[in-house]
Amino acid sequence: MSPEYKVIIDERPYNVEVNKLDEGGVLVVKVGDQSFTMKAIVNEDGTWIVNDLTTDYPVKVIKRAGQNITLEINGQERELVWERLRKVETTKKVSTTNQSGPKVAGGIYAPMPGKITEIRVTAGDKIKPGQTVCILEAMKMFNELKAETAGTVKEVNVEVGSMVTPSDLLVLIG
Prior knowledge:
- This protein is an all-beta fold.
- The protein folds into two domains: about 80 residues; about 70 residues, CATH 2.40.50.100.
- Helices cover about 0% and strands about 55% of the residues.
- Strands 1-2-3-4-5-6-7-8 form an eight-stranded antiparallel β-barrel. A four-stranded antiparallel sheet has the order 9-16-14-11, with no helix packed on it.
- Strand 2 and strand 3 form a beta hairpin.
- The protein is globular, with a radius of gyration of 17 Å.
- It starts with a strand and ends with a strand.
């Protein structure tokens, strides 16, 4: 089951479904009856390049407050509000374990086995030390996993519902 969202742009509602095609970051985004194949690339400065496989569109997050986001897309400011309509039910295990090797600097790792119940960051977000990046439920307790350093989120390797084990790399901050 793919995540489905209700997105309001310029006061017009859209139902949006997002499907990941491959590990290279290629997505199929369905808006109403139309499907678009695209790729999103995060730059070091936190801006994005969204590519429809023919043209690059620069995207910058100007302001984010809960479900309200102000974006600059191709030089034009857009306000949008999003709401998740359907949660992804998954028991997919995170494949980025790092039990045998050294930990990557800036990595936030699962301290214990559990289930990811909330993700509070996305790739490209600027974060501060002590900021919560995700919530891990373990033994009926909810644990806030926090950034130790400031930086930009480079990768989010889990989804809501992911089952993790100790030393799984959850979020990478650069």
